[in-house]
Structure prediction request, 107 residues.
Amino acid sequence: MYDYEITPSGAKALLAEGKAKLIDVREPWEYQAAHIEDSILMSMGDVPARAHQELDPDDRLLILCHHGVRSLNVTNWLRQQGFEAAQSIAGGIEAWSTEVDPAIPRY
Prediction:
């Protein structure tokens, strides 16, 4: 069983190795302002309707938001739905920008 949160650097390593999918649960305007390449935009409010159709419960899913609160809520919900390998990226895209890739705009 994975921890509910993963560090930005831990997430980056998994993504670089192709071992995870990045799900961005922010709103479209936030995604436009700043996003990580190859992330899938699935706004928090859309997750219940889209998760079972578009995501594989066996995949390692890394969930991203602005500061890590929404992503942790979505991770909790996904885990309850059987997505046992879902993890929230601690600190969200804000932490990603400061710790992993300063080219990602902060807002």
User: Anything to note?
Assistant: The first strand starts at residue 5 and ends at 6. The mean pLDDT is 98. Helices lie at 8-16, 28-33, 47-54, 69-80, 92-99. Residues 69-80 form the longest helix (12 residues).
